[in-house]
## 1
Amino acid sequence: MNIAIVKYNAGNIQSVLYALERIGLSALVTDDAEQIQKADKVIFPGVGEARTAMQYLQERNLDQLIQNLKQPVLGICLGMQLMCAHSEENETTCLGIFENKVKYFTSDTPTIKVPQMGWNTISQLKTNLFHQIPEKSYAYFVHGYYAELSEYTIATTHYIQPYSSALQKDNFYGVQFHPEKSAAIGEQILQNFIHI
Amino acid sequence: MLTKRIIPCLDIKDGRTVKGVNFEDIKDAGDPVTLAALYAAQGADELVFLDITATVEKRKTLSELVNKIAHRINIPFTVGGGIRSIDDVSVLLQNGADKISINTAAFENPFLIELIAKNFGSQCVVLAIDAKKEEDDEWYVYLHGGRTKTNRLVKDWANQAVSLGVGEILLTSMNHDGTKQGFALDITSQLAMALPVPIIASGGGGTEQHFYDVFTEGKADAALAASIFHYKEMSIPHLKNGLSQKGITMRL
């Protein structure tokens, strides 16, 4: 099993690598087109800002590479948002794999913080990505922007309003939460992705 | 719903846990990685590691420790203590820390906050504030582990720090720390109501009721404690179950 983690100018890439190592897997962190293309599974992680991340990907032609991958791809957090059509974060045109728009959380209540930071539930779970994951399991989130609900939604979370905490279209999967930091549930989700 | 968070804090010196004793069920009480793994398995929502080593070798020891923790722990963790530069931050994040906490260095050089937030994102910048209520009933910022008083009001400093890019505030009341008489509800709720970032309350947690109060009246997003967990005065599952039964949203 060859797992490639896409290396780009975003944080938490090491955390994803370490999480795979904890469940007995190794992965290659790389921005090399050939290595990514020939991998069995590709993970597209990320914590950061949408526009600079997209620019970085475009400068290296990684944008087209990711769009054309045929093996299972898992976007995490910013990675998932970049797989959507557009992000309100600095009005960025993204990869357009999912037709969703990514919007900024707005709250009128002072004690409801933006970004959302912490543990929240994932519900209405669909696809094998959530094999053996109970409804309303807790996952760890850190994000100020969210993907709207759509036909691609495979997990729903409620913060201010319901939104897509996971998306799927063909071979592309995306999760808004951090499976690499979501305790045993997160490790199970990573395992599930590897077995897709 | 987003849960309230329970965060055990481990003080580290020369790569070992200080304070931690009396652990019958773990072989090496001084090993922070073992203790952290135990807390994570018990349902801690996050962990904070505070390095109090004062030697020149500390940075290397700490980054090695952070790397070991990151390989072992499957929940988010924050590392703090003596972070003074963007390079310090970079090394810790590369070794797997999710967030870093800064205190005195940020007060002396607020630009550091902006620099870290710009390079690594606000989500990884936790501002630790040691606060003390003086006779004039105002809360003041203290530095150098509580040894140096400043004339800056906590609310003013917290406000400025958030505008510079801090993503979370770890507020420790020096009046309450170590007393086990409850958290500082007034300043905690004041910051929680005024600021758009989560507030982690620290200092004074001794009973389940104290945690209940700080999440309701204190409006804290998270509560941190050390000795009550280290000395097994309270177990994390017991605390979280109790709070959940009282209506506080907890990850069980």
## 2
Amino acid sequence: MTEEIIIAGFGGQGVLSMGKILAYSGIMQDQEVSWMPSYGPEMRGGTANVTVILSDNRISSPVLKKFDTAIILNQQSMDKFEADLKPGGTLLYDPNGITRHPERKDINIFKIPGAALATEMGNPKTFNMIIMGGFLKVKPIVKIENVQKGLEKSLPERHHKLIPLNIEAIQKGIENVETVISL
Amino acid sequence: MGDIRLMKGNEVIAEAAIRCGCDGYFGYPITPQSEIMETLMIRRPEQETGMVVVQAESEVAAINMVYGGASCGKKVMTSSSSPGISLKAEGITYLAGAELPALLVNIVRGGPGLGTIQPAQSDYFQAVKGGGHGDYKLIVLAPASVQEMNDFVDLSFELSFKYLNPAMILSDGVIGQMMEKVELSDFKPRWTAEEIEKISGSWATTGKKKGIKRRISTSLDLDSAKQEVFNHKLQAKYRAMEENEVRFEKIDCDDADYLFVAYGSSARICQKAIEIARAKGIKVGLLRPITLFPYPTKQIQEMLGQVKGILSVEMSAGQMVEDVRLAVEGKVPVEHFGRYGGIIPTPDEVVEALEQNFLGE
Amino acid sequence: MTATTELKNIISEENKVYGKTSVLLDNEMHYCPGCTHGVIHKAIAEVIEDMDIQEETIGVSPVGCSVLAYNYLDIDWQQAAHGRAPALATATTRLMPEKYVFTYQGDGDLASIGCAEIMHACNRGENIVVFFVNNGIYGMTGGQMAPTTLEGQVTATSPYGRDCQTTGFPMKISEMVSLLPGTRYVTRESAETAGAVRKLKKAVKKAFANTRENKGLSFIEIVGTCSSGWKQTPVQSNEWMKEHMFPYYPLGTLKDE
């Protein structure tokens, strides 16, 4: 199994840390992982994306042009990465702020109201874990228990009290992802 | 199972330095490698292993601190990125001239000039052919994964002390900024003063003991005859490195009709390109130089009876390709494919270049 | 008694009034006649012997006339790139804090190309001693203008006299470094008379004592001559120094904390 994923949105949406938790979860199930960020020179508010690869084998290029999955969290990223999905790939997006919805017919498309759900949960920082939940529902490549272990390993001890909230957010995402197109 | 982490290449350099018993790091901030010094400052190794970390006033000062530390027989290092390495070039040639061991890390960015902060491999010539003045060579290691960033720190010190010559880890922002799974090395204690006397007592300036000759760390000899003799000695050392220290990796070469030669991050991209090309029925393999000096010249030559064409893939306008051509001596066509100025080639582009150059497409 | 036996009898421990310190090697010095470096080397060597710190002292020599200082003092030495001696000394003292580390630099090395390194080593208060030999000229390269060359002084690159409007003004380095909190002891000395050398040796001793007590950076400027560069006899040089250098670079301790 090799899963090549792009996660793209604004800086501050937790794009990079979501990728990191996903990669750590892969390590917890003995997979090879890579996490390759790309961002502008701005310290705050620019676009951010990260390529995450989980594989049972040695990973070749950490830099990719074609992806199995795109998790898209703003319009610029939709414009940039929709075309980069492999045919039959998976596009998951949050419709919040999206003015041009995905148009391809040869991919699976799912949406999740991550921003709205995060507001509902009363904590905007749960946003990326809600999205993660949505992703794991449509592509269960890592087990939730390994996500939990990944969080334990990647978060400093003083933040471990936030793990239950993160798991709750993942559950919220699992419950609320909607199919737009399923091939 | 050892200590397995998900870490950035730059962070791993810092962690590996602490764990391998490095005595001192001297650096100056420059993107995209500042995490090395930042990680060290967060880790506070002076409290854990006694390793000293100094933010110098300039790259020039940093490399000269390395010279001072290396002169004491200590395991010392610096890191920088392209423009900073240019500033350090003088100090680097002094290290080579004084036969001092040290680890230099270059996380290359696109140039020339201030250039870009994005990854490039356009400092190959600088690292391998000189960079500073005089006839000298660095041992140059090119990691292609975060794991190798870990492994090559200790290896660089080992080779550096074996040959009394500075060693460079030549990488870029792809490997430096990327996180991968890495198994960290076990902790090795720093050398004690007694161990340093035993290992480097013939040259380390640790204070002249009674009855032994004073030790001088210098690259100066105003007598040309002596300077030539010294240069012969250096050249003999470089030939010994060529004999004993070539490191490389071959991937999918057994049945290959075509060959990619690429190092570091370009080698990773070529591995994906191999998957794509082989899915199309093109039998291509990869020879990945791990040491850029000494260069795997013989290993490339061994492929010549088998392959119909060689594509050197680099994030530069064509530097390593010259060494490939020197190895090949015109026996098979050698072409270069590169993206530069901070652009990373995609695996598809690499396959296209292979097809265009050798398959008449 | 023959004259030889008579001499042999005289050479005995009880008649000894002077002995060359063993820290000073017997190598023939390459310095020009009348040069101040030899006197300063000897002063430092004698203090190293007096304080019994030969085994614990590491010197860092510069680029310039004193690049070969390592041929004259019998201690371990590092030879630095031009201006960078304080960087080498920084790492050496950080990695071997129990050692006595000093740099020995001229005015071209320290005050021109090495300005950043000396200022920052002083500012960090590195536990080292800096010997700054100021003779207002580049000696080794053939007498060019230095940052410390006096106004109107003729050198190979100021053949009509230093014009401060275009070349800047002679830099008072000791005054500058004395303003930095990292320096503990800053003094300006000379070495043209026996009395001056005695004073210099006192300063050297104090500086190394500061190192022993981990007090930070001690900076000793020594105003010296360059007969060849100044195109004068040694005697004229000393007179010229007293008349022109001392008024602009006044001797004495600037800081002692």
